[in-house]
Write a structure and sequence with these properties.
The complex is a heterodimer of chains A (145) and B (243).
Chain A (H helix, E strand, L loop, with lengths): L2 H26 L1 H4 L5 H6 L8 E7 L5 E3 L2 E7 L4 E7 L11 E8 L5 E8 L8 H9 L9
Parallel strand pairs in A: 4-6
Antiparallel strand pairs in A: 1-3, 1-5, 2-3, 3-4, 5-6
Chain B lengths: L1 H38 L13 H28 L2 H32 L8 H22 L3 H14 L3 H11 L19 H44 L5
Helix pairs in contact in B: 1-7, 2-3, 2-5, 2-7, 3-4, 3-7, 4-5, 4-6
The chains are: A alpha+beta (145), B mainly alpha (243).
């Protein structure tokens, strides 16, 4: 075998091994790689009260109650819902139906005491007129997760 | 002599194509900047902040494109010992690192008004920081060795190991929950970006690509000139003349 060919095989084999190792590691650490849990994950994993965690989902329509800086709302992933309490300024993009990610802890009553609320932006970009036209046609946000 | 034949051909070729790349890049950059920053509509929820996309997204593309080029050049350099390939990798690294820094900085500026934070350690953002460190590590390795051949070898191996990071960056937004939104352009089905916004974005993409190639050719020519100077100096000092 020519040295060139041998080097080619060595590089290819090394990359294959490296790729496999990376895939296994990423798979094993999946729980630590997600930035936030959905309300369903939260229920399924039985996260104990007091443990710091991030949860993400949509702000449930009609659930937002604001009283000065104190706000209460629910976030949902369609299957499960979590009640959230937060004191502080909400991000500009925060509104009902918007995807958000919040950092905090569950209290003993099952309410999520949020310390930080971030708005999640989706992958849709359009001018306001197009958004209005879509809403008027009933085609709004067909595939939101 | 075979070693010198290729660089000579490369120099001739690069001189010939540089004006053409320039002729595409400049109009695309001007049109893209004008359409993106002035002419294009505001976004229905981000308002004017959406304009950061036109400098951020193409920079992120070039950060990944730059690393792919780096890895391909490293593989060619390692396997076929092509002298120009090592040079191309060495020349590409700082450009790719520059685009990575642009992507990180503009992304941070966009994140504050949109998400409500400058920075989070989600999978997408973290993997792009790792990309920056791979670039920096590659450059550091080039400078860590006296002999260029050994430096090229070590740096190339690092570049190839770093390849695993590319699919992680690309698919991080699909594999794991991230704060960063998933891709809009490569989405199948309904377009996620309005045509009036897609046009400046693609123009800027072409402009950034042209800029990358131009800088790459220029840097490679500088590297070749530097090697020539060093070879000439060596030859002079061997001949016993004062250098």
């Amino acid at each position: 075998m020519k040295p060139k060919t041998r080097r080619l095989y060595v590089v290819l084999l090394a990359l294959l091994a490296l790729g496999t190792a990376a895939a296994l590691v990423l798979n094993a650490f999946e729980d630590n790689l997600v930035f936030f849990y959905s309300p369903t994950d939260l229920k399924a994993k039985n996260v104990p009260p007091g443990q710091a965690i991030r949860i993400g989902g949509l702000v449930e329509e009609g659930s937002l109650v604001k009283d000065g800086l104190n706000s209460h709302f629910k976030i949902t992933d369609g299957a499960q819902t979590v009640a959230v309490a937060y004191t502080g300024n909400l991000p500009d993009l925060f509104r009902e139906g918007q995807g958000i990610v919040t950092f905090g802890r569950l209290d003993a009553g099952g309410t999520f005491q949020a310390e930080e609320v971030l708005a999640k932006h989706d992958e849709n970009y359009m001018p306001p007129e197009v958004a209005d036209a879509l809403k008027a046609a009933g085609q709004w946000m067909p595939e939101r997760k | 002599m075979h070693r010198f034949a290729n660089p000579a051909r490369f120099l001739r070729l690069s001189r010939a194509i540089q004006p053409w790349i320039l002729a595409v890049t400049v109009p695309c950059l001007l049109a893209g900047l004008y359409l993106g920053l002035v002419e294009s509509p505001i976004d229905y929820q981000q308002k004017d902040t959406v304009r950061i996309m036109y400098v951020h997204v193409p920079a992120a593309w070039m950060a990944m494109f730059g690393y792919s080029s780096l890895a391909i050049a490293s593989a060619i350099g390692l396997i076929w010992k092509h002298p120009l390939a090592d040079l191309a990798g060495k020349a590409a690294a700082p450009i790719g690192a520059g685009f990575t820094i642009i992507a990180l900085a503009t992304g941070s500026l966009w994140g504050k008004p949109t998400w409500g934070t400058w920075w989070v350690w989600d999978a997408r953002l973290t993997s792009v920081v790792v990309l920056l460190f791979l670039y920096l590590g590659y450059m550091a390795l080039w400078n860590a060795f006296e002999q260029p051949q050994r430096a090229a070898r070590a740096a190339s191996i690092l570049a190839l190991v770093g390849i695993v990071n590319l699919p992680i960056i690309k698919f991080s937004v699909d594999w794991w929950n991230t704060l960063h939104q998933p891709a809009s352009i490569s989405r199948i089905g309904t377009p996620a970006i309005d045509p009036a916004m897609l046009r400046p974005l693609l123009l800027m993409g072409v402009a950034y690509l042209g800029l990358f190639l131009l800088l790459l050719l220029l840097r490679m020519r500088v590297e070749l000139a530097e090697r020539r100077v060093m070879a000439l100096q060596l030859a002079r000092s061997r001949d016993g003349e004062p250098s």
